[in-house]
Specification:
The protein has 358 residues and is of the alpha/beta class. 38% of the residues lie in helices and 18% in strands. The protein has twelve helices and 14 strands. Helix 1 (44-55) links the parallel strand 2 and strand 3. The longest helix is centred in the middle third of the chain and has 19 residues, at 117-135.
Length: 358
Amino acid sequence: MPLLAVRVVAISQNFPRAIIRNAWLDQKDQKKMSNILITGGTGFIGGYLIQQLIHRGHQVRVLIRPSKKTPDLPKGLSVEVVVAGFDDPRGLRAAMVDIDTVYHLAGAEWKGAYASLMEIDIAGTRAVVDMAKESGINHLFYLSHLGADRASAYPVMKAKAIAEEYIRRSGLGYTIFRTSIVFGPGDGFTTGLGFILSMLPGIFLMPGDGKTLLQPLWIEDLVTCLVWALEDPKTRNQIFEIGGGEFLSMQQIVEITMETLGKRRMVVNIAAPYLRGITVFFESLLPGFPISIYWLDYLASNRTCAIDTLPRFFHIIPERFTPARLTYLNEIQWGKLLWQNLRREGLFRRIRRVRETA
């Protein structure tokens, strides 16, 4: 695959708000600026990270895979874009020229049943790590999940643990963040809940008994940690488990989301295997469906960590999961979002082909 390297300069200033809330990140205290490569930069977390790194004065390059779709990069910012897949050594090598630090955010679980964890999360991580070593990269940051474990019964948690182990044994300087569920404008978690509550009338199908504990982490708190860690040598060769400032059951999270949207639904508890089957059906019918089988895996057991990690290590008082913080959900036109998903995933074209061959 030939390498394409371009500089993308967007002209619109209408990009999501990213506020650096930590005094440690004040502009006057900036340290040595870095040349940074980000994988997964077109995703939810990547977009916010790009904004804050550029705000700090770092030079940012984004690795995106070859695709017919226009990359979803933050508008109003100048970033370098390199188009190459993880299976393209020449492209990866060129992407890392003059790079000091890599943020490896790319993951496949957002694709749900269509995800290739082996290709992206495991083999992709190995390719990035190997090329980073060859290129003399100083530091690699990796985004993992709470509950990552090679012995886990859940594919995503197992894949993340395998990737973590390869990074730790590579000899590269690393920092690994195991995060709880992350929320904020443009996320998959609260937006998925809002979509279901708004588009499916009457009931909400709750995984299990709804007592699974989560620790929702505000996107700007996470990205502030990622940026601060770049500038603190004490974070090198460390694994941090981070989450929000409170433990909430899935039942409480759904109730807070309903309160935010001003909608009431009858909550029906359904066993995970049955809900998994329903989810697989909808994913096959509608790629891009906001709830995936891996999303359900994440909710299968408690995903929590020490509640004082952000204040203790990063001097941040985490934002709470409240209706006041979720007001961005009320700005979404859910019918329009559904239509955009249908068009983007080509559902109508698939239906038309089925009719033509019938």
